[in-house]
């Protein structure tokens, strides 16, 4: 097998094998752009490395060695050579770009001898020693995992001794001395000399890239972004272009459109006399890309041409890294740029208007998971006007956030775990901070530009971020900072605006986002191309209205138990539970009936004649019983029973396995009067609303939960139908209604042909179906699932992302069995999976009629449904 490819041997379509970076480096080479040449070790080699017990086998080694020779021939340079030494960068590159993995090692191939050679040949010893000390630093950090702080301390010490503040002010001699100190540091930590053989260095770096595929940060990122572990990462070995050889050199990062807003035009940052990591690390504050026109007019002109070539070629916004060496431009990377949800919509629409993309392609370009950032809260405009910003950074990722200031990623996780809303405040962030960033409402950094780690990662997560607020005086050690004359300690409240970059003291109230413009255009296209309908899970008129605004075409699940929890109602409901007689229960239910009917009427109103599925009471009764002595006493009084008698009833309701206990339609079998009451409430509400709105067609869908056997469904259905028909007759109304069932127990899937005869519709309750299929509890599985992720038994939470192999197979079986016996049967899903893009795609594939999800995920589902159809 071929494990290694020269850039000249690859192309963009080989992304799976070469990773995104490798495939695009090959593609840029093919279209004649100035790319320093190199080779890519494939993603398959990474997978093989793990299969071989974390070893690079001889075959792969042989091919790498061969390609070193080839690269030496192409560049006319040689590893470790005393005339013309080859120096390379080593970079990871998975199929999808992945923060959290090893990023870059520069200047690999240097040793004491080679430094002298390049110092002499270039006549620039400062540069040579700068390269060397950077290499030792990066190699020690990413390959050998000696923390970078030791090296930074040495640099700081050196700067102090020399009385300078900037790295660039250190002389060749200083840097040579530093390189020596770095090597000593390395030896003291590792116990061995720093490697001098370029090949040994290269293999160390390649292994480090492979290893980083499996580090905890990468695993977290993969899980969040649906990236399979099996993909592996490629390694790119590229000959160096130097941006740090003097003032006619530089390096930068640029986007062809603004990644925050989507506005067309070059957007980026660059630094003269610097190497790549200086720009992204936020160590020095970079210049605006436009200044490049003054510094390097020739290279800037060429760069602009390259940008337009690349955009036309990829037909998408590009994110590029480049270096200018003595005035000459080199392209180091291009990729479809990460962008905010707003920018994604604008860019997709613009590309259609510019004739570069079709509507379908535009719809396919939007990551549905990003959409909900658009739906996230913004500051209340009035409150915002009244507030004076204490300071301002860069609006790096939009949205509004407020919370208590915390200063470390671990604190963010811990505080959020206690239910606190926090804003993570850092000098700068690094990949180790990822779980802290995820736990925070927002992120505020002192250093770093729009392309800094914090900015890029926050944008990807859809978390509000203000970066690069240099006015902050930070005291990380003592967990405090000062801004605008005000000192903030841990726990002090702060608000940040990720759009404007403004920072405020205290909590500013937020309001929901409104959606319009490009969002509407994309959604309209999505609606045009999707086949799946999208309903919502809503129990209140407010939720239902919100969902309608967001495009819901009906209610797929109204959990009626949520309507029992209000104070008046719960009292009546408890009375019902504690009654010994049917009459007693009926009397209690009679009190609840008007509430339920009123609720249902409001729901029908909110849904404007679109379908509304009402699911009958589902949870085990113990969820409703009082827990405090005071409430128990109250219930005892109301029931004319002793406290002990109530306690006995409560004890009697205890179940060892409540989720597999007395719940769902089993409640209707034991207490038919509950189903009767709920039927009355539904039918009466429907009749009333239909009367009020003759032009609507109100067709109530009554949904029976948890069926496992057709006879139990038949039993409950009979109660429902008799009650409903009597109501309709008494009212002299003409109302059509449906009775269907949830499919959430494996046995229901296995016997769906029998059940379909008694059901007008099926709705997959994949929360329970997942629980019952795996045999683990939807409420408690979290306790051990982390161990399952760590051991790669699971890559995803099956309660969030549908298990297509198991649960999905049961669904397919239910559909295959059900449809032939009842051609009118309509089928949906209302488990949490109904709003998860990959699950929606599956639902499309297996032929469901609709998905139902929480209101804010409705747009996500609409888009995912369209993407599945395109
Ligand atoms: C389900 O089980 O998937 C479902 C939607 O019902 P609930 O979550 O209310 O059990
Ligand atoms: Mg359920």
Description:
- With 870 residues, this protein is α/β, with parallel strands linked by helices.
- The chain has four domains: 4-242, 2-Layer Sandwich (Dna Ligase, domain 1); 243-339, ATP-grasp fold, B domain (D-amino Acid Aminotransferase, Chain A, domain 1, 2-Layer Sandwich), CATH 3.30.470.20; 376-511, Glucose Oxidase, domain 1; 530-620 and 655-869, Alpha-Beta Barrel (TIM Barrel).
- Helix 16 (409-417) links the parallel strand 14 (400-406) and strand 15 (422-426).
- The mean pLDDT is 92.
- Magnesium ion (MG) is lined by residues 705, 744, 765, 767-768.
Helices and strands in order, then pairings?
Elements: E1 4-6, H1 15-30, E2 38-41, H2 43-51, H3 58-75, E3 88-94, E4 104-108, H4 112-122, H5 125-143, H6 148-162, H7 172-190, H8 198-212, H9 216-224, E5 233-239, E6 250-257, E7 264-272, H10 277-281, E8 287-288, H11 292-295, H12 297-314, E9 318-325, E10 328-336, H13 341-353, H14 359-365, E11 378-379, H15 381-386, E12 391-392, E13 394-397, E14 400-406, H16 409-417, E15 422-426, H17 434-439, E16 442-445, H18 453-461, E17 464-467, E18 473-475, E19 480-483, E20 486-489, E21 493-497, E22 502-505, E23 510-511, H19 518-529, E24 533-537, H20 541-549, E25 555-559, H21 567-578, H22 582-607, E26 612-615, H23 629-639, H24 643-653, H25 665-670, H26 672-692, E27 700-704, H27 710-731, E28 738-743, H28 746-750, H29 752-756, E29 761-764, H30 766-774, H31 782-790, H32 807-821, E30 826-829, H33 837-845, E31 850-853, H34 858-869
Parallel strand pairs: 14-15, 15-16, 16-17, 24-25, 24-31, 25-26, 26-27, 27-28, 28-29, 29-30, 30-31
Antiparallel strand pairs: 1-2, 2-5, 3-4, 3-5, 6-7, 6-9, 7-8, 9-10, 11-23, 12-22, 13-17, 14-21, 18-19, 19-20, 21-22
Helix pairs in contact: 4-5, 5-7, 6-7, 13-14, 13-19, 14-19, 19-34, 20-22, 21-22, 22-26, 23-24, 26-27, 33-34
The structure holds phosphoenolpyruvate and magnesium ion.
Magnesium ion (MG) binds next to α30.
């Amino acid at each position: 097998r071929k494990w290694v490819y020269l850039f000249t041997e690859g192309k963009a379509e080989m992304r799976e094998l070469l990773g995104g970076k490798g495939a695009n480096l090959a593609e840029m080479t093919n279209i004649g752009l100035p790319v320093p040449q190199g080779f890519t070790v494939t993603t398959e080699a990474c997978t093989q490395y793990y299969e071989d017990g974390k070893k690079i086998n001889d075959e792969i080694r042989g091919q790498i060695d061969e390609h070193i020779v080839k690269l030496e021939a192409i560049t006319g340079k040689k590893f470790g050579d005393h005339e013309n030494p080859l120096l390379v960068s080593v970079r990871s590159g998975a199929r999808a770009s992945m923060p959290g993995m090893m990023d870059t090692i520069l200047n690999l191939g240097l040793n004491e001898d080679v430094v002298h050679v390049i110092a002499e040949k270039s006549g620039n010893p400062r540069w040579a020693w700068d390269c060397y000390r950077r290499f030792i630093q990066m190699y020690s950090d990413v390959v050998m995992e000696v923390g970078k702080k030791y090296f930074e301390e040495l640099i700081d010490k050196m700067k102090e001794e020399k009385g300078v503040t900037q790295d660039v002010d250190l002389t060749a001699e200083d840097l040579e001395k530093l390189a020596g100190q770095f090597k000593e540091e390395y030896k003291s930590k590792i116990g061995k000399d720093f490697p001098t053989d370029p090949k040994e260095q290269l293999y160390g770096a390649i292994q480090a890239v492979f290893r980083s595929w499996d580090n905890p940060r990468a695993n977290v990122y993969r899980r969040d972004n649906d990236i399979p572990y099996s993909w592996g990462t490629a390694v790119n070995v590229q000959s160096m272009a130097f941006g740090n050889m003097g003032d006619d050199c530089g390096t930068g990062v640029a986007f062809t459109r603004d990644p925050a807003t989507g506005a067309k035009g070059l957007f980026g940052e660059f630094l003269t006399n610097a190497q790549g990591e200086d720009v992204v690390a936020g160590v020095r504050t970079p210049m605006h890309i436009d200044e490049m026109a003054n510094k390097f007019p020739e290279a800037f002109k060429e760069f602009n041409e390259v940008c337009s070539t690349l955009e036309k070629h990829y037909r998408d916004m590009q994110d590029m890294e480049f270096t200018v060496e003595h005035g000459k431009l080199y392209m180091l990377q291009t990729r479809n740029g990460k962008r905010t949800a707003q920018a994604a919509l604008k860019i997709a629409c613009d590309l259609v208007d510019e004739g570069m993309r079709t509507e379908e392609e535009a719809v396919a370009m939007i990551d549905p998971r990003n959409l909900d950032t658009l739906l996230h809260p913004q500051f209340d405009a009035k409150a915002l006007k009244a507030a004076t910003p204490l300071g301002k950074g860069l609006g790096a990722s939009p949205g509004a956030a407020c919370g208590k200031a915390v200063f470390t990623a671990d604190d963010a996780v811990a505080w959020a775990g206690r239910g606190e809303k926090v804003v993570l405040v850092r000098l700068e962030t690094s990949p180790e901070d990822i779980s802290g960033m995820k736990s925070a409402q927002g992120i505020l950094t002192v250093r770093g530009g729009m392309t800094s780690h914090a900015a890029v990662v926050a944008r990807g997560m859809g978390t509000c971020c203000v970066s690069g607020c240099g006015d902050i005086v930070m005291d990380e050690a003592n967990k405090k900072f000062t801004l605008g004359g005000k000192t903030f300690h841990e726990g002090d409240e702060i608000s940040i605006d990720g759009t404007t970059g403004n920072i405020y003291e205290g909590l500013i109230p937020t309001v929901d986002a409104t959606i319009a413009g490009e969002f509407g255009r994309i959604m309209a296209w999505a609606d045009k191309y999707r086949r799946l309908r999208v309903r919502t899970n809503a129990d209140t008129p407010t939720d239902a209205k919100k969902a309608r605004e967001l495009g819901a075409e009906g209610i797929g699940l109204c959990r009626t138990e949520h309507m029992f929890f209000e104070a008046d109602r719960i009292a009546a409901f408890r009375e019902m539970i504690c009654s010994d007689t049917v009459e007693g229960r009926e009397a209690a239910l009679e009190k609840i009936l008007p509430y339920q009917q009123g609720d249902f009427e409001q729901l029908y109103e909110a849904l404007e004649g679109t379908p509304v599925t009402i699911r009958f009471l589902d949870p085990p009764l113990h969820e409703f019983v009082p827990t405090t002595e005071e409430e128990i006493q109250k219930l005892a009084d109301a029931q004319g029973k002793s406290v002990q008698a109530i306690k006995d009833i409560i004890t009697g309701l205890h179940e060892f396995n409540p989720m597999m206990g007395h719940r769902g339609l089993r409640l209707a079998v034991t207490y038919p009067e509950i189903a009767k009451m709920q039927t009355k409430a539904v039918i009466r509400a429907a009749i009333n609303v239909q009367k009020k709105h003759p032009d609507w067609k109100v067709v109530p869908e009554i949904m029976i939960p948890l069926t496992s056997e057709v006879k139990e469904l038949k039993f409950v259905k009979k109660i429902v139908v008799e009650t409903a028909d009597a109501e309709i007759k008494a009212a002299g109304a003409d109302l059509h209604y449906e009775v269907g069932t949830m499919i959430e127990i494996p046995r229901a899937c296995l016997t769906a042909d029998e059940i379909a005869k008694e059901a007008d519709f099926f709705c997959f309750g994949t929360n329970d179906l997942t629980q019952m299929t795996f045999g683990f509890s939807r409420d408690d599985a979290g306790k051990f699932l982390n161990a399952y992720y760590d051991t790669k038994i699971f890559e995803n939470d099956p309660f969030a992302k549908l298990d297509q192999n198991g649960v999905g197979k049961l669904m397919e079986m239910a559909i295959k069995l059900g449809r032939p016996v009842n051609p009118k049967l309509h089928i949906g899903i209302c488990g949490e999976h109904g709003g998860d893009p990959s699950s929606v795609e599956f639902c499309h594939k297996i032929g469901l009629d609709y998905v139902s999800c929480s209101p804010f995920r409705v747009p996500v589902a609409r888009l995912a449904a369209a993407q599945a159809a395109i």
